[in-house]
UniProtKB/TrEMBL annotation:
<protein>
    <recommendedName>
        <fullName>chorismate mutase</fullName>
        <ecNumber>5.4.99.5</ecNumber>
    </recommendedName>
</protein>
<dbReference type="InterPro" id="IPR036263">
    <property type="entry name" value="Chorismate_II_sf"/>
</dbReference>
<dbReference type="GO" id="GO:0004106">
    <property type="term" value="F:chorismate mutase activity"/>
</dbReference>
<dbReference type="InterPro" id="IPR013785">
    <property type="entry name" value="Aldolase_TIM"/>
</dbReference>
<dbReference type="InterPro" id="IPR006218">
    <property type="entry name" value="DAHP1/KDSA"/>
</dbReference>
<keyword id="KW-0808">Transferase</keyword>
<dbReference type="Pfam" id="PF01817">
    <property type="entry name" value="CM_2"/>
</dbReference>
<dbReference type="InterPro" id="IPR036979">
    <property type="entry name" value="CM_dom_sf"/>
</dbReference>
<dbReference type="InterPro" id="IPR002701">
    <property type="entry name" value="CM_II_prokaryot"/>
</dbReference>
<dbReference type="GO" id="GO:0046417">
    <property type="term" value="P:chorismate metabolic process"/>
</dbReference>
<feature type="domain" description="Chorismate mutase">
    <location>
        <begin position="271"/>
        <end position="362"/>
    </location>
</feature>
<dbReference type="GO" id="GO:0016740">
    <property type="term" value="F:transferase activity"/>
</dbReference>
<dbReference type="Pfam" id="PF00793">
    <property type="entry name" value="DAHP_synth_1"/>
</dbReference>
<dbReference type="InterPro" id="IPR052899">
    <property type="entry name" value="Class-I_DAHP_synthase"/>
</dbReference>
């Protein structure tokens, strides 16, 4: 994918006074009452590890008649939290009205939820409402692993002049049962980072997991992939939470999770490490070149097969042969420690390319 540059983004460390990398945003899924919000905020504040306090005020729910958030009154409670604890506060917006309300009540950071990012009309309206506003805006990935839709939403906010801009990786919806609520598909945020190296990406283990037990692992994975921060849902009494109870942790547990994180950096100045890495990378470069040469040679043979087939009126697609190849390769790959997914995807791509080469050389 071609890089559409997001120039002049303001570094995350300058978004708000005192924030650090990794940026930690935590708080309840929803604001429920002034007491619940203040109690949670105070317990989170004493950890000394959280940069920004979050709470959902408007909740986009899948079914009607579920708790849809307390609405604007919750912004007054958030303002109290900010006054009492000194923590900057953040909430999700999904409409122009939400943007105006959040700004009116002095919310310090807003994010746009997955369902909203998936809707370009909503994104455009929100972007226009944000013109001239100087607060950080984070865009969650859309529900489907559609990088362009995510990037498109980010670009709409950027075009409105927002330069304190970031993304949130909250995983992707899937059909069927899985240990995780939303599949992470890490290659999607990794690709977003590649095309926009200056765009901070925050991991959202709560929504990826949908349960409490795996949050620490997924948070660590986000750090291993060099994401710039974490958003974790925390509630003073998670079992009684009005929304997403299963994935919220107590502030105490949040503190343990954060203390247990091994924070990684992408670079180091250790010379021995740099030398070893350079040496190993030159070996990888050599193998990558070999892979390309082998692919080139394979395609040349496929082209010859294509020409023979044309002369003999034989179809390009040979299902039995193709099925034989993929089964054989997956089995052999397993013996070499290569996953079924990896081998299937590689050979599907090779087969597609082979067919395209045959189509091209046999075109009249
Ligand atoms: O074996 C063939 O008939 C080919 O054309 C080669 C090849 C491949 O690339 O492996 C390509 C297309 C067919 O569907 C099956 C296999």
């Amino acid at each position: 994918m071609a890089a559409n540059e997001l120039k002049d983004l303001i570094p995350m460390s300058e978004w708000l006074p005192g924030i650090k990398r990794p940026l930690i945003i935590a708080g309840p899924c929803s604001a429920e009452s002034p007491e619940q919000l203040m109690q949670t905020a105070k317990e989170i504040k004493v950890l000394g590890q959280v940069d920004i306090f979050r709470a959902g005020i408007w909740k986009p729910r899948t079914f009607p008649n579920n708790f849809e958030g307390v609405g604007s009154i919750g912004l007054e409670w958030l303002r109290e939290v900010k006054k009492e604890t000194g923590m900057p506060v953040a909430t999700e917006v999904g409409s122009v009205k939400h943007v105006f309300e959040a700004i009116k009540y002095g919310v310090d950071l807003i994010w746009i939820g997955a369902r909203t990012t998936a809707n370009p009309f909503a994104m455009q309206e929100i972007a226009e409402a944000l013109q001239g506003v100087d607060i950080p805006v984070l865009v969650k990935n859309p529900l489907s692993p559609d990088l362009e839709l995510w990037d498109g939403g980010i670009n709409r906010i950027y075009a409105a002049g927002i330069r304190k801009l970031g993304a949130i990786h909250r995983g992707f919806s899937t059909w069927g049962k899985s240990d995780l609520r939303n599949t992470p598909h890490w290659q999607v945020p990794i690709e977003l980072k590649r095309i926009h190296p200056n765009l901070p990406i925050i991991g959202d283990p709560s929504h990826i997991c949908g349960n409490r037990t795996m949050i620490a692992d997924i948070a660590q994975r986000a750090m291993d992939f060099n994401l710039d921060g974490l958003m974790i849902e925390s509630h003073c009494n998670p079992d009684e939470a009005w929304s997403d109870a299963k994935q919220q942790v107590t502030p105490t547990r949040l503190g343990e999770i954060l203390s247990g994180l091994k924070i990684k950096t992408e670079h180091t100045s250790d010379e021995k490490f740099i030398r070893t890495l350079d040496e190993l990378r030159s070996q990888i470069d050599m193998y990558d070149d070999q892979i390309l040469n082998i692919l080139e040679a394979r395609m040349k043979i496929a082209e010859k097969i294509g020409l023979c087939k044309k002369e003999n009126n034989v179809s390009i697609l040979q299902t039995a042969r193709w099925s034989d190849i993929i089964n054989k390769m997956v089995e052999k790959g397993a013996g070499k420690g290569l996953s079924d997914k990896c081998i299937s995807e590689i050979f599907q791509s090779i087969h597609e390319e082979s067919i395209n080469h045959q189509i091209n050389v046999t075109r009249d």
